[in-house]
Amino acid sequence: MNAPVSELIDLLSLERLEDDLFRGQSRDIGTKYVFGGQVLGQALSAAQATLAQPRHAHSLHAYFLRAGNIEAPIVYDVDRTRDGGSFSVRRVTAIQHGKVIFFCAASFQDEEPGAEHQLSMPEVPKPEDLEPAPMIPPEKLALLPIKVQRWLDRDGPFEFRHVYPRDELNPPKRPPFQQVWFRLTERVGDAPELHRALLAYASDFHLLGTATFPHGISYYQPNVQMASLDHALWFHRSFRADDWLLYSIDSPSAQGSRGLARGQIFDRSGRLIASTAQEGMIRVLPDKAAP
Fold first, then answer.
1. Which residues share a beta bridge with 22?
2. Which residues have a catalytic role annotated?
3. Cα distances (Å, whole numbers) of residue 153 to 135, 210, 258
4. Rounded to whole angstroms, how far apart are CA atoms 222 and 193?
């Protein structure tokens, strides 16, 4: 297993301190604070570890309260809120330096048959027909803040191929829609719990950024501040995070220094496997206040 994938699997494999208390390490991937997807994936891993029966997560609703410190571990305290005949609910509180930085509720259900329908997958090119994102020339990379350089210059555990690529260093104004194919770069085991935690991690990529498209701004610009405020994730059908998945995202609104984005995730056969929603802070600072 290559290093980025192995590191991510280790990141989602928490240390159990007590029956309902877990500790996770943090990874510096070039973001200023702990990447939100890391906390989502670890919180879901913690909740899944407290289930007595093999129920599968079908929804997760989370709030980010404080920025996480990359240099410190995070403790996850799980409350076994309910175990019913078909559903279980867990509340997870993430704590760092004695303060709550995040909390979420996750619901789990036994597998059972029922009525089915879904919206159709957008008609887009196959991932094999799209070029991987080009490397940023070293002379341009050197002009960016160190953290951004590390973010852009690393080989991550997921591969992304944009249907309509955007130059994030010189972003044009365009409608708030995008489609991105993504997959884990190496095959992993078959455990559904692992693939759900991996998808929770990956679902935080590209989502809020879609709300910046009509305004011609980007997270990489030094005077732009962005942070996730909440995150919702619904799992609809079985999937593998190491097979190509299409993330189709739109942003219906931005206002009050906040942007809202919604996503649908399809497998390559067109099955809708998950849906997401997120609101985040988007602030453009005066140039004189830029760090």
1. 16, 76
2. 204, 228, 278
3. 8, 22, 28
4. 38
Identity of residue 91:
R
Positive or negative: CA dihedral 91, 94, 100, 102: negative
Calpha distance 290→163 (Å, rounded): 32
* Cα separation, 9 vs 157, whole angstroms: 10
**Residue 35: CB atoms within 10 Å:** 23
- The bridge status of strand 272-284 relative to strand 224-228 is antiparallel
Buried b (16+ CB within 10 A) or exposed e, 72-111: eebbbbbeeeeeeeeebbbbbbbbbeeeebbbbbbbbeee
| Stronger pLDDT, 148 or 34, i.e. the higher one | 34
Domains along the chain?
Answer: 3-110+126-289 (2.40.160.210)
pTM of the predicted model as reported, rounded to 2 decimal places: 0.94
Task: Write the DSSP symbol of residue 71.
Answer: T
Tens of pLDDT, residue by residue over 172-207, are 999 999 999 999 999 999 999 999 999 999 999 999
